[in-house]
């Protein structure tokens, strides 16, 4: 099926799907992939409009992305980071036969504050980034990347890696970046949690300034069969600074999944 969606396959062993965050691409998982590929067959997705999927016709929508990816990968747990977590959560909630396990890394069912959800970000932050995209595309991306790295115990190294990765597979499509910000501002998948039929692992970064660890704990508490873990010195991208610990957590989770 030629949907323009790029999915890198690497490694050998039990399968695992990896989904990146806003403005990034699958290459951001390179350190984590190095630690997982000897035991797992990895399916590393570039989401629509990002990386090598820049010209994909698939909409940047959790349902559309989940359907397109599920048609291309075997039955496997899905791991979503940040924006990718919305796609992974939707897939696990609606396709439990195809997605037998869910791992959320610094990802939440709702990214903004609202009624009954006090640990989200201010919606004005996402609107400010959306306005910035129109006025200063690269500067806005750099501000967002800086926010991702802020708080990590190796913020400089994380910032350097993210800056190097963001354009390494070409510039993401501007209209898709705007769609992604709107998705982060408006998506609310909390209703999916109580009926989640597959085990889930929620990995938070203690120093994350984009996704509050308390939001992730609240989400894990609402999902049956969920476990919660914190990377004590991690920021929003702990797989960059604490790849060994994240890999160990994912390995242990996958080993406990029903055959």
Question: Nutshell version of this structure?
Answer:
With 259 residues, the protein is α/β, with parallel strands linked by helices. It has helices at 30-36, 62-70, 83-94, 123-135, 137-149, 155-166, 174-186, 213-222, 238-241, 243-256, and strands spanning 6-10, 14-19, 40-46, 78-81, 102-105, 200-205, 226-231.
Give structural notes:
The structure is a single chain. The chain has 259 residues and is an alpha/beta fold. Helices cover 41% and strands 15% of the residues. It is built from ten helices and seven strands. A seven-stranded mixed beta sheet has the order 1-3-2-4-5-6-7, with helices on both faces. α4 runs antiparallel to α7 (174-186) and α5 (137-149) runs antiparallel to α6 (155-166). The longest helix has 14 residues, at 243-256. The radius of gyration is 16 Å and the shape is globular.
Helix tally equals 10
Can you tell me the residue ranges where pLDDT is under 50 for at least 5 consecutive residues?
A: none
**What letter string, H or E per element, gives the SSE order?**
EEHEHEHEHHHHEHEHH
CATH topology: Rossmann fold
Total E-strand runs: 7
> In whole angstroms, how far apart are the ends?
29 Å
Structural category: alpha/beta
Major sheet: arrangement of strands: 1-3-2-4-5-6-7
Mean pLDDT: 94
As a percent range, the share of helical residues equals: 40-55%
The percent range for strand residues is: 5-15%
**Radius of gyration over C-alpha positions, nearest whole angstrom:** 16 Å
* Shape descriptor: globular
The CATH class assignment is Alpha Beta
**Most strands sheet:** 7 strands, mixed
Give the full name of the CATH homologous superfamily.
Alpha/Beta hydrolase fold, catalytic domain
The CATH architecture would be 3-Layer(aba) Sandwich
Number of domains: 1
């Amino acid at each position: 099926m030629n949907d323009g969606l790029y999915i890198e396959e690497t490694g050998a062993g039990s399968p695992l799907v990896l989904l990146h965050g806003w403005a990034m691409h699958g290459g951001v998982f390179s350190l984590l992939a190095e630690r997982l590929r000897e035991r797992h067959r990895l399916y590393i997705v570039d989401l629509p409009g990002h990386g090598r999927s820049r010209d994909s016709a698939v909409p940047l929508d959790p349902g559309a992305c989940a359907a397109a990816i599920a048609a291309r990968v075997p039955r496997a747990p899905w791991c979503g980071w940040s924006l990718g977590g919305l796609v992974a959560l939707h897939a696990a909630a609606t396709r439990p036969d195809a997605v037998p396990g869910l791992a959320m890394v610094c990802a939440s069912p709702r990214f903004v504050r609202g009624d009954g959800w006090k640990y989200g970000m201010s919606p004005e932050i996402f609107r400010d980034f959306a306005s910035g995209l129109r006025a200063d595309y690269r500067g806005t991306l750099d501000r967002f990347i800086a926010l991702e790295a802020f708080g990590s115990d190796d913020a400089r190294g994380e910032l350097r890696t993210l800056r190097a990765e963001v354009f390494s597979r070409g510039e993401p499509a501007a209209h898709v970046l705007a769609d992604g910000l709107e998705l982060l501002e408006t998506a609310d998948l909390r209703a999916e949690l109580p009926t989640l039929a597959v085990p889930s692992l929620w990995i938070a970064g203690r120093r994350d300034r984009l996704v509050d660890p308390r939001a992730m704990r609240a989400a894990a508490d609402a999902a049956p069969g969920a476990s919660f873990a914190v990377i004590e010195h991690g920021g929003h991208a702990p797989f960059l600074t604490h790849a060994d610990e994240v890999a160990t957590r994912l390995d242990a989770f996958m080993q406990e999944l029903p055959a």
